[in-house]
Every structure is written in structure tokens, then in C-alpha cells.
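Dear U.,

Please find below the material for section 3 of the report. The protein was modelled together with manganese (II) ion; I have listed the sequence and SMILES used, followed by the predicted complex structure.
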Amino acid sequence: MKLSTKKNGFLGADQTVSYEASYQKAKAVIIPFGMENHVSYGEGTRRGPQAIINASHQINENDEQTFKAIYRCGIATLTQPQVPKKSTTALNLLAKITQQVLKDGKFPVILGGEHALTPAVLWAVCKKYSDISVLHFDAHADLRSQYEGSIYSHASALRRVLETCPVQRLVQVGIRSVSEVGDELGFMRREKKRIKTFWGWQDPPPQRVIKAISTKNVYITFDVDAFDSSLMPATGTPEPGGLQWWPTLEILKAVFAAKNVVGVDLVELAPIPRLHAPDFLAARLVYKMIGYKFSGTRIKAI
Ligand SMILES: [Mn+2]
């Protein structure tokens, strides 16, 4: 599959320096995919990828933990394709794109869009890696058998992953919204060997999260509503009692150090016009994760 990159994508350029790499030279490839086929409450996730890209142009390139200029690892941004309206067609397209990026030996970073896109990424990831776990940050368990008539709803995203991919373990962090009617609790109980859920009130130390991940390879899916709604109001279904910034980065840093993270997605940002802090948070989180992957996780003090 032929992939095309976009100028002025993630990080962009200022007058003197371009922070973007060519596709050939990039280690990390940003895949914007503003899929929004199911909306339960607040709409706007289709605008998420561009809001993250716009905010990323304001990121100072030097990381304040490692004091490294993360962009030097090479980051390219793909042109967003027209996202098909039919869910299965959209998912197959995203799976194909991700498969190509993985085949080219690059680290895929998918920008959503709604959480419904995650199964497609895992279809591609599981073609390359047989020994894989999923680390899932979210306010919601996303384990419903179906939701509002669709099995490809965002509320069923991780259930579809577990049903359609040979994922060994699902480790959930930040969960504080779970449905009984949607058979989430029942499914969790039946699959308790495969699913480990850390509830929002538990605030697990990084080592407990790492211990729960049974494989060397990990895929991270990050629904921005995992964060407390005060930090992240720009999402369709915000919940109080969520994650905070530095403790979350501590978990991510520890996981990137201990495991082989093979790809990430960041989903469910629904930008609010004139409230740009959430867009900046999302852009910074993407930059941090790429940094942990390629610039290391050892924190320096200067
Ligand atoms: Mn969610």
C-alpha cells in the first residue's frame, strides 16, 4: 500500500527548523484517523487529529525530563485518508495503513477519532506480533457486547479486540464507568484470567501495572477521558475522579522502560473551540510517548 505524508503535520516547522522527518527516515509515524461513526453524547472526535497536530506546533522540542530533543528520532505524519462512513470499511482501511507502517519497521501512533478504531489497529499489530498484551487507559471499560445497535461501537472497542485478536492480556487503568446491562461486569468476571482492571480510585503504582502485563510486547490504547474531567473536558463522555498528569506519565515511563511497546493510539479528543488546553495535553502526551520510546526513560536533573 502506498502511503503519503503531510507537510506541516505533527510538530511542523518554524522559520529555521523543520521538526518533521521524511517517511523513509521516520521511526515514529503519526496516522491521523478522525473516525466518528458512532456518537453517544458529545460529538467532534473527527476534529481530534487536526487539533492535536495544530497544538503540537507549539510544543518546545526539548523534553523537560530527559533534556533530549525528541523530534530527532524522526517523526512523520501521514495524510489523513477520507474516512469511510461504513464502520467495517473504515476499520479495514485503518488496518491496512497500520499494517504497512508496521511492515516498514516503524512505530505507529494513531490519532482518533473514536475508540471504535482500536480493533483495526490490533488486527494489524497481531499479524506481526503473536505475543501481545494491551494496556488500556480509559474512564470506561469499553467491554459491552454491543452498544446502540452496533458491535463496532466505541463502547465495545476492547470487547471486539479480545474477541477478534489473540491478545493475551488486557490491562485497564483508570476505569470508573462500567455497565451491567451491557454485560461488562459479567464479561470481566468470565474473562478474569485475561483482563486485569485497575479502577479509577485505585491509582496503581507503575510496578503493579507492569506486573499485570504478561507479555514482552505491549500495545497502548489511550482514551483521553481516562484523565480527570478537570484536565480533559474535551471529550464526549467525561468522568470525574480520573487520572492526573504526572502519575500517568510515571506509569507510561515505567511501561516503556520494562516492555517493548509496539504502537499506541490516542482517541476520543473532541476539541472545544477556544478551550485549547485539552488539545495541548493530547499533543504533549503523544510527544512524551514517542520520547519514552526513542529518547529513553531515564530522567535527569539539571
Ligand atoms: Mn472512554
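For the text of the report, you could mention the following: The domain at 28-294 is CATH 3.40.800.10 (Arginase; Chain A).

Regards,
Y.
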